[in-house]
Amino acid sequence: MRTNKSIHYYILITGILLGITTGCKNYKATVLQANTNVPETFTGDADTVTIANLQLKQFFNDSCLLQLIDTAVTANFDIQSALQRVEIAGTDLRYSRSWLMPSVEFNATAGLEKYGDYTMNGVGNYDTNLSPNINGKQHIPNPTPDYFVGFRSSWEIDLWGKLRNHKKAAFSRFLASRSAYKLAVTSLTAQIATLYYQLLALDNEQQVIEKNITLQNNALEIIKIQKLGGRATELAVQQFQAQLARTQSLRYSTAQQITETENQLKFLTGKFTGTVKRDSSISALKVPGLLNAGIPAQLLLNRPDIRQAELELTAMNADINAARKAFLPSLTVSPYVGYNAFKSALLFNQGSLGYGLLGGITAPIFNRKRIKADYARTIAEGKQALYNYQKVILNGFMEVSNSLKGIENYNNYYQLKKEEVKSLKNAVDVANDLFLVGRANYLEIITAQRNVLDAELELANTKKNIFLNAINLYRATGGGWK
């Protein structure tokens, strides 16, 4: 009869264990993979070398700009915050590694318990105290103190790799935080360079405005003299004065833009006061030619935001795997060693030394719904990471394509705009000569002067746009962080 009961117990226990260990079969392994098939080239040409491999000093040859970038990288608050995020991810990684190792704690406890007369401990202790086999030191008092000084440990054996997946996720997020730091440096470099060239363009605009103010002042004086000689009217004088006032007003709006741009640069470099040093004018800078962006597949290696998104996806895949393993039973081993006694005077007696080992298997039964919900949430977060990764790749490709075409188109636009400015300057000279001999009226002079001013300002902006597209290309290909 006892044999049949033992068989039944064995079958029951075996069935429970099999149900626990196979409970995860309903949740197949889920691996999220992105489609990273990108075109072979950006423009149809055989691009081979990416400008992302160029160092800052090779790409930017302006010493003032390089100094601004160096200052910003060490003083900018966003960069400092990104470094702290790397530090946080590093501590998370060290914490996840500790899960694989046993925890050991020094333990010193003291307790007191009063046993009832009609309990197993109460009756057992009473009988024990009457036994002739114990001495006076071994008599158990009631209430019974309990003293322990020693070490206790707990160690979850990673049977299924759940803890190793947590570690893998933490390591991937640590690498992602480093890519996020590189992205912050790349973005800051692009911001500094963009503002710097905008500042040079505004300086050039101010020079153009001042030059035109001088020319328009001279024209106004001439028309006043001609009015005194009866060759011009008050209407002509007022028109020239209005044009001069318009140009002079541009001086102050441009000055305000210069102030705001300088303050933005000071903010990015962590400064309250001071001036932004710049030695060259944008009109004197060499216009960059067509720059190679490299093959699109290099974006996967060079762009920090793509590397960050890829590592976040890797981390989520590890999280999904760990969440899936949560359905399986876990084995925990808890050893201890120390002194244990019910009398403080005997605590450190040699006979009070004790040790033990407890091992236990735990498996989810009634909390499986919570684990299922956590598993489903982790998969949903993983899909978010997948879609973000694919979006970042597509966005990177589009940014590089736009910048490449921008450099090409603005270069062509700049060359034609230079010819336009040259022709308009000649037109001003011709209009002045014709006006002096009475073959052109004052409106033609005013129109010619205004056209020259607008064209020269647009020329400066066009050159600025060439540089901005080159900066965007450098950033879009992942350069600027080294």
TrEMBL record:
Keywords from the named record: Coiled coil, Lipoprotein, Membrane, Palmitate, Transmembrane, Transmembrane beta strand, Transmembrane helix
Classification via Pfam families: OEP (PF02321)
Keyword set includes Acetylation: no
Coiled-coil segments: 407-465
Subcellular location: Cell membrane
Transmembrane segments: 7-23
Domain of life: Bacteria
Keyword Phosphoprotein in annotation: no
Broad class of where this protein is predominantly found: membrane
Membrane topology, from the record: Lipid-anchor
InterPro entries for the chain: MdtP/NodT-like (IPR010131), OMP_efflux (IPR003423)
PANTHER family the UniProt entry points to: OUTER MEMBRANE CATION EFFLUX PROTEIN, OUTER MEMBRANE PROTEIN-RELATED
Protein family membership: Belongs to the outer membrane factor (OMF) (TC 1.B.17) family.
Name of the protein in its database record: NodT family efflux transporter outer membrane factor (OMF) lipoprotein
Organism: Mucilaginibacter pocheonensis
